[in-house]
Amino acid sequence: MGGRLARAFRNFNLESRARREISKEKPTPAPRHSTSRLDELTERPGIQEEIYRKDDKLLTLLKDVYVESRDPPVRVKDGGGEHLPCKQEEKRLTKLGHLGDLDVKKVPKGKISIVEALTLLNNHKLHPQIWTAEKIAVEYSLELKEVNSLLEFFIPFTVQEFPKEAKKAI
């Protein structure tokens, strides 16, 4: 439906708009800069002949050139060979939430899952004396500075239910 309407507006008065565009005066192009190189080629025809002339000496030298290409031998790495040093992250088991199989099982140290983040924020909100920043940092293997930032800038939502009488007053 929308395509038909758009096509109708696009094709409305098309011929007169096309005639108007065609009848407009065309802008004159900017004058071209005469380059000294082109003038030089037209003045001296010997340059053109020299460009297209074959040089037998160069052709014989070119025929003597032979390029042979070989791929380097492929080396198969076995399991006992050299190993690149790789950084293995220490992982810790998560404090499983209520989602079970959907939860992340292992998290690198210094990071937390979303379920853990919500849990620790809620615990800190309900019991700030028990769940201090230091205890949270130790419990979840986090840095104290990051835990302080987390507790300062992230606040979990609170659900408030208003009594029916208060709803009418609002």
Overview of this structure, please?
By secondary structure, this protein is mainly α. Among the domains are: 36-67, no CATH class; 91-153. The protein has helices at residues 2-11, 14-23, 36-43, 45-52, 56-64, 114-126, 133-140, 144-153, 164-169, and strands at 91-93, 106-108. Helix 7 packs across helix 8. The longest helix is centred in the last third of the chain and has 13 residues, at 114-126. The protein is flat.
Low-confidence stretches: none
pLDDT averaged residue by residue: 79
- Tally the helices: what do you get? 9
Topology pattern, helix = H, strand = E = HHHHHEEHHHH
Q: End-to-end distance, in Å?
A: 45 Å
Shape: flat
Mind describing the biggest β-sheet?
2 strands, antiparallel
Estimated radius of gyration = 40 Å
Share of residues in helices: 40-55%
User: What structural class should be given to the helix and strand makeup?
Assistant: mainly alpha
Number of strands: 2
- Strand percentage: under 5%
What strand line-up does the widest sheet have? 1-2
